Amino acid sequence: MTALSVEFSLKHQVSGLISDKFGLDEAELLSGATFDELDIDSLILVELSLILRKEMGIVLVEGELKSSFTLDEAVAVIAAKADQA
Amino acid sequence: MSGVARGRGVAVTGIGLVTPAGIGVDENWRRVLSGVSAATTDPELKGERVDISCRVPGFDATAELGRRNAWKLDRFAQLAIVSARQAVTDAGLDCGSWDGTRVGVVIGNSLGGVATLEKQLRTYFEGTPDDVSALMIPMGMVNMVAGYVAMDQKIHGPSLVTATACASGASAIGTAREWLLSGLCDVVLAGGTESAISPGTLNGLSRMGALSSRTDDPAAASRPFAHDRDGFVAGEGAAILVLERCEDATARNARRYADIAGFCATSDAHHATAPHPQGAGLARALRDALNDAGVLPDEVEHVNAHGTSTPMNDLTEARALHSVLGDRAAVTSTKGVTGHTLAAAGAVEAAYTALALHHGALPPTANVDSLDPSIDVDIDVVTGQARQKRIQVAASTSLGFGGHNAALVLTAA
């Protein structure tokens, strides 16, 4: 797979997780809105980090995911971590 | 008779009920009048020393609140939010159009999100600190339910959780009445909520000897005032009342179920968990609540008693009721049907008392095959069928661990 398609697949994996665990509509997540705009606050981002570690083995440092991020920006951070893993 | 010195009354204009007796006022009232217990074997308590409970049947938080909201809330908050929505709609009010700065919310709770806390502590002890959810604290804290209802209903006046154990719901209603009569608020959502049917909590209650061990016959386990009662059945639920000053309710032509005419709270200062043997603190609370309402003891026609079905509570409460009211009032414990909803109980039972005044029907006490002969005073316990009777004055009594006593006096609107 190309780097682009890996990131595309990761994006759908992450949006699927957020949708499944937090009850958000995937279309909303993929719309380019920021987490803030989607009512995903800092506590929920801590919860997301926990889920990413448990379900995908990706370990993020506290505060790495920011509520000002869009899904694409979050996925870029997650992808970089996945590369290191 | 209605209108007797009711100057300090506030009107009950809306009721929300999410209890073991059902979801909504109509389901609750039908079930409570039927006198059929809601207690069942609880699959989530399988293997525990007590495996029966009274849960809210068919409560689907995701359907009621949406998954986006439901997962972030412990069940004690979910029940209260749904109950509050019912109550506001029932009152013909709308949080989209009211002045939220003039609205308050006060809700009784005791054990908060104890099921969430138990689960997260297990996660912590079996895993690492990083496994603990960031939502553990906001889901677990008792005060959060008032905050969440305020958010949901756009309430910007005072928000408060009262914690007087099983008297918490009654304490909340008494507090709400003061907020209205002092002019602090124009509308108050007042009630109680509890959802603490977790293995840890039930084992704690069971080790105290508080729970019925009649696990082979759950439907007969909650039997207030019966000679063979042996403890309560743990229940969950929420009740929220919309309260307004009577003149405000009248001015907007609101339906008034009944008025909260008097309230008093007292403390036993006697023992951590045992009530005073003569029910002295409860008797004083009831007497002073009647004074507060401007009602004479012999005017009281109905009492929705605390009646937990523990040997000690029902005996001492009967003595307290008799010492103030004699044997004239028809006494019911609706816990025979609902089990003991702990901090919600005072509010659930205040709602049932308001409905008894509104509908002219007194619910029976479930499972009372024969009254306890060791209750050494005469009280008129409603057994068997509901009694159809128009009444003007009723009371609801509550007691809590810690020696908290509370009495509410309600009058026909």
Observed structural traits:
heterodimer, A: 85 residues, mainly alpha, Non-ribosomal Peptide Synthetase Peptidyl Carrier Protein, Chain A, 4 helices, globular, B: 413 residues, alpha/beta, Peroxisomal Thiolase, Chain A, domain 1, twelve-stranded mixed β-sheet, two-stranded antiparallel sheet, 14 helices, PKS_Beta-ketoAc_synthase_dom (chain B), Thiolase-like (chain B), Beta-ketoacyl-[acyl-carrier-protein] synthase family protein (chain B), Ketoacyl_synth_N (chain B)
Which assembly state applies to the chains in this document? heterodimer
Number of domains of chain A: 1
Rg of chain A from C-alpha positions?
12 Å
| Poorly predicted tracts of residues of chain B | 1-6
Helix content of chain B: 25-40%
Present the secondary structure layout.
The complex is a heterodimer of chains A (85) and B (413).
Chain A: H1 3-22, H2 26-29, H3 42-56, H4 71-84
Helix pairs in contact in A: 1-3, 1-4
Chain B: E1 10-19, E2 22-23, H1 25-34, E3 40-41, E4 52-53, H2 61-65, H3 67-70, H4 75-90, E5 103-108, H5 114-126, H6 136-140, H7 144-153, E6 159-162, H8 168-181, E7 187-194, H9 199-207, E8 237-245, H10 246-251, E9 258-267, H11 280-293, E10 302-304, H12 311-325, E11 330-332, H13 335-338, H14 345-359, E12 361-362, E13 380-381, E14 387-388, E15 393-400, E16 404-411
Parallel strand pairs in B: 5-6, 5-7, 10-11, 10-15, 11-13
Antiparallel strand pairs in B: 1-2, 1-8, 1-9, 3-4, 7-8, 9-16, 12-14, 15-16
